[in-house]
Amino acid sequence: MEIEVEFKGVSSHGSAPERGKNAIYMASRACLAAERLNERLPLDDFLGKGSVTLSQFVSGSPSLCAVADYARIHLDRRLTWAKPRNPP
């Protein structure tokens, strides 16, 4: 499965980042959550372990002196039939 996720932030001048909402920070938290998810995916006796990995990270802002107002990540997810051992 291929998954694309877009994050919409609010740009502000780099001297006042608290006035904006940084889309890179939002996307980064999602990337770290995907990494943690991959670590706990169960093992299927026949198919092996499922996986999820980040394969692309793109971001944008009005300028290099501004808070990024856009980010997009692309995830590659491999599925198996295994049931979670410790459901969340």
Offer a concise description of the structure:
With 88 residues, the protein is of the alpha+beta class. It has one helix spanning 23-40; strands at residues 2-8, 43-44, 48-49, 51-60, 70-78. The protein is elongated.
Please characterize this protein's 3D structure.
With about 90 residues, the chain is α+β, with helices and mostly antiparallel strands. The strands form two sheets. A three-stranded antiparallel beta sheet has the order 1-5-4, covered by helices on one side. The chain is about 20% helix and about 35% strand. The model has no long low-confidence stretch (mean pLDDT about 95). The chain contains one helix and five strands; from the N terminus they run E-H-E-E-E-E. It is elongated. The longest helix is centred in the middle third of the chain and has 18 residues.
* Strand count: 5
What is the element string, with H for helices and E for strands?
EHEEEE
Strand order of the largest sheet: 1-5-4
Distance between the termini: 22 Å
The major beta sheet can be summarized as: 3 strands, antiparallel
Gyration radius from CA atoms, angstroms: 17 Å
Structural class: alpha+beta
Low-pLDDT stretches: none
Helix content: 10-25%
Mean pLDDT: 93
How is the topology of this model organized?
Layout: E1 2-8, H1 23-40, E2 43-44, E3 48-49, E4 51-60, E5 70-78
Antiparallel strand pairs: 1-5, 2-3, 4-5
Structural descriptors:
two-stranded antiparallel ribbon; single chain; alpha+beta; three-stranded antiparallel β-sheet; 5 strands; 88 residues
